[in-house]
């Protein structure tokens, strides 16, 4: 099996080594800038993750009712591919690399850089991500063909319209993420030359990383990811191989790549606006509440407060002395690595065992955004404040 296609690929040890920066400051700054952009991009794909969550929910909801439908079987394969993409945990891999990079504004003469094997592992994971995204693009088109036929036959019309819209959304986001991943790969690859090597190479002897990821992906990438229309800029009416009128594919049709990016931006802005409106509607309003009731609500409750803890509620008491051994950025990294291992292998030993993966992941992202900006002492103080708030309040 190809290296990029291995599910349980053993990562190299996260290490750094001293390196002279006299002639490579521009390359180091470019690497830092690219890793920062990648961290910000892949950690904010909430809309794509929401669409993938809908896909999983639909597959589980209709797995018995539609189990003999070909289009639904294709949707199950889409869901399996999306689960593999989630298990790549690319954000964590980027964080491991980014944590050892210096600030782009100031680079000392001797700087500790991550070893080459860490970047090689990230590039291999990006190869696998692009392959999986291209499979999602292909499978969503296959499922869309079937859904359209069912819609034309008026069979379970509302259900298949919903399925078709979801396939279009996943198709759109997968193409966009795949293009951005190829761009990031091409920006990261030149940095292999400036990173220090280890005595034992992590890559197998016969494995060579491609210089251009787009060239490695080949014709399928150009056809399914880059191609948006014909020479006149108009989308072909039978690009899905459908028969007759193709107006039902309006959601999936875009004349240019810029048109797709604009649609994605509008969709994200619309969801953000809808979220703001929803929060405003659910916020308490006192304009129509009688004054007597407002005064009554201000009076203290004479009842006894009863504490109730949910099954997975975070601990309300935490001994801050457990963090006294953390005195540098390196200690913080080791602590987070050990905590992540405990959450997977020994949940009872984890200090954050009552927190969800999303809460713990958001906590890591907040830390990495301040890693290079703050000094070691300031970062340790910031970490302890954030961690205490996390375990006591669950936020």
Structural features, described:
One of its GO terms (biological process) is positive regulation of Notch signaling pathway. Residues 4-189 form the Nucleolus and neural progenitor protein-like N-terminal domain. This is AGAP003214-PA. InterPro entries: Nepro, Nepro_N. The chain is an all-alpha fold. The chain has two domains: 3-226, no CATH class; 321-394, no CATH class. It is 58% helix and 3% strand. A two-stranded antiparallel ribbon has the order 1-2. Residues 229-252, 281-289, 294-302 and 309-315 have low confidence and may be disordered.
Quickly describe the structure:
58% of the residues lie in helices and 3% in strands. It is built from 13 helices and two strands; from the N terminus they run E-H-H-H-H-E-H-H-H-H-H-H-H-H-H.
Keywords:
two-stranded antiparallel sheet, mainly alpha, globular
Number of strands: 2
Determine Rg (CA atoms, Å): 25 Å
Number of helices: 13
Helix content: 55-70%
The strand line-up of the biggest sheet is 1-2
Through-space gap between termini: 42 Å
Q: Indicate the overall shape.
A: globular
The largest pleated sheet is described as: 2 strands, antiparallel
Query: Would you tell me the structural class of the helices and strands?
Result: mainly alpha
Poorly predicted runs of 5 or more residues: 229-252, 281-289, 294-302, 309-315
Strand fraction: under 5%
The total tally of domains equals: 2
Mean pLDDT, to the nearest integer, reads: 79
Sketch the topology as an H/E string, one letter per element: EHHHHEHHHHHHHHH
């Amino acid at each position: 099996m190809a290296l990029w296609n291995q599910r349980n690929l053993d990562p190299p040890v996260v290490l750094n080594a001293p390196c002279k920066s006299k002639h490579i400051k521009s390359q180091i700054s470019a690497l830092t800038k690219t890793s920062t952009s990648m961290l910000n991009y892949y950690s904010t794909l909430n809309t794509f993750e929401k669409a993938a969550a809908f896909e999983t929910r639909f597959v589980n909801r209709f797995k018995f009712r539609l189990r003999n439908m070909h289009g639904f079987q294709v949707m199950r394969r889409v869901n399996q591919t999306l689960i593999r993409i989630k298990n790549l945990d690319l954000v964590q891999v980027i964080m491991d690399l980014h944590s050892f990079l210096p600030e782009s504004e100031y680079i000392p003469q001797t700087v500790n850089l991550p070893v080459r094997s860490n970047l090689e592992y990230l590039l291999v994971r990006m190869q696998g991500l692009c392959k999986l995204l291209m499979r999602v693009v292909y499978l969503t088109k296959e499922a869309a063909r079937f859904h359209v036929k069912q819609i034309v036959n008026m069979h379970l019309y509302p259900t298949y319209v919903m399925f078709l819209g979801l396939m279009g959304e996943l198709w759109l986001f997968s193409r966009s993420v795949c293009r951005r991943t190829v761009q990031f790969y091409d920006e990261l690859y030149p940095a292999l030359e400036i990173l220090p090597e280890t005595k034992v190479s992590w890559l197998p002897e016969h494995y060579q990383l491609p210089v251009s990821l787009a060239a490695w992906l080949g014709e399928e990438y150009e056809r399914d990811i880059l191609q948006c229309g014909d020479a006149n800029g108009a989308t072909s009416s039978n690009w899905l191989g459908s028969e007759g009128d193709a107006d039902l594919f309006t959601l999936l049709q875009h004349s240019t790549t810029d048109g797709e990016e604009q649609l994605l931006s509008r969709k994200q802005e619309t969801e953000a606006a809808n979220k703001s409106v929803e929060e405003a509607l659910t916020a308490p309003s006192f304009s129509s509440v009688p004054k007597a009731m407002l005064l009554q609500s201000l009076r203290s409750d004479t009842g006894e407060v009863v504490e109730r803890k949910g099954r997975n509620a975070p601990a309300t008491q935490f001994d801050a002395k457990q963090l006294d051994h953390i005195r540098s950025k390196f200690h913080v990294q080791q602590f987070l690595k050990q905590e992540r291992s405990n959450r997977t292998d020994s949940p009872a030993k984890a200090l954050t065992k009552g927190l969800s993966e999303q809460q713990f992941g958001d906590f890591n992202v907040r830390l990495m955004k301040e890693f290079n900006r703050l000094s070691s002492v300031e970062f340790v103080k910031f970490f302890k404040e954030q961690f205490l708030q996390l375990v006591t309040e669950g936020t």
